[in-house]
Predict the structure.
Amino acid sequence: MLQETTTKQQNAGSGQNTGADQNAHVELKGLTKDFDGTLAVDDLDLTIYRGSFTCLLGPSGCGKTTTLRMISGFVEPTRGEILISGISQRGVPPHRRNTSIVFQEYALFPHMTVGQNVAYGLKVHHVAKDELRTRVNRILDFMGLTGMEDRLPTSLSGGQQQRVALARSLVMEPEVLLMDEPLSNLDAKLRVKVRTELKDIQRRLGITTIYVTHDQEEALSMSDKIAVMDEGLLQQYGAPWELYFNPSNRFVADFIGANAFVTVRIESLSESEIRLAIGDQRIALPSTAVADKVDDRDKDAKLSLRPESITIRPAGDDGTRDERRTLRGTVKANQFLGAYVRYWVEVEGQEVIVDDHDPRFQGILEGDVALLLGESDAQLFPIER
Ligand SMILES: Nc1ncnc2c1ncn2[C@@H]1O[C@H](COP(=O)(O)OP(=O)(O)O)[C@@H](O)[C@H]1O
Ligand SMILES: [Mg+2]
């Protein structure tokens, strides 16, 4: 397994997957876990593709860890089926599954050296001494840990400990690598660095990876595919790009990206455009961009607006001529965040978040402003989720 993949990895993230089953590696079918009345995972159907980096993303308590533990065999499903390479895992104990799991807390043995920690699983499996040494050395080398064999985990940095934990999993040469929030004990800067490393290792090995996180940025930046979960239910499964630009419901739109949701009234809906009222203001947006989830006329709906797709200008500025896409509002607060200024703007008693990515151009605005909405990034959702 420790051969770097030479064939170009299939891009599991792009659109329709024809002949999907051929590429399916881990299949969850109606997977359900009921902890005495708590439905931790509810009838989950998911196909994870061979060689892909797939994230389970969702808020705390949505059932991510339970799903991962069912795949690894540590938790018995209440109902449903797990297939790995087409083979049912029912009744297969954890150590007989071709999976390996990396936990948030690393769970390194503190009294064992790095080398001993990495060799532990091979020893338990009675791998012959020579082969054991070869495999341990190869993985230490691969992970940039050569020279640290004899150190104790406590003498290593958080990032190094995380690499040892990963090495300990990879040395087992699992078919499927499972990771449960493996970066959450690292500080913010290191987290970004290690996630780049992790992704690089995964790509070089081409190993099917299922990665649990509640951090949308982590999921967006690393994944071929993301399964968004809430309350045990799958909300959407798709490439990061798809989830961001075409969320299938309000939960996904809200969870991914810093969106504002504005209550609007649908005044008319035609093939080409949708006319909306927000308090006393009127706007029109192309119906292709907004109308696919809502079809009722004359009803209230929620308009989701991305902070980066709105242009903010001083009220009355010439740059905001497109009246049909312009909202008038008042700046309530702003934060200078270096690369951009984030504004909280009140529009008809509601809050809209706007990011100005080139603040040097107009400075920091206050008082009355005009907001020019990006045509295609606004999304309309029903009032109820
Ligand atoms: N062993 C358990 N016994 C009872 N309830 C559990 C157990 N493990 C998890 N749960 C419950 O199942 C739900 C999902 O938990 P979990 O899978 O850990 O979520 P996540 O990893 O997304 O934070 C939560 O409501 C949690 O309290
Ligand atoms: Mg968890």
About this structure: The pocket of magnesium ion (ligand 2) is lined by residues 64-65 (CB under 6 Å). Residues 4-20 have pLDDT under 50 and may be disordered. Residues 318 and 370 are 10 Å apart (CA to CA). The radius of gyration is 25 Å.
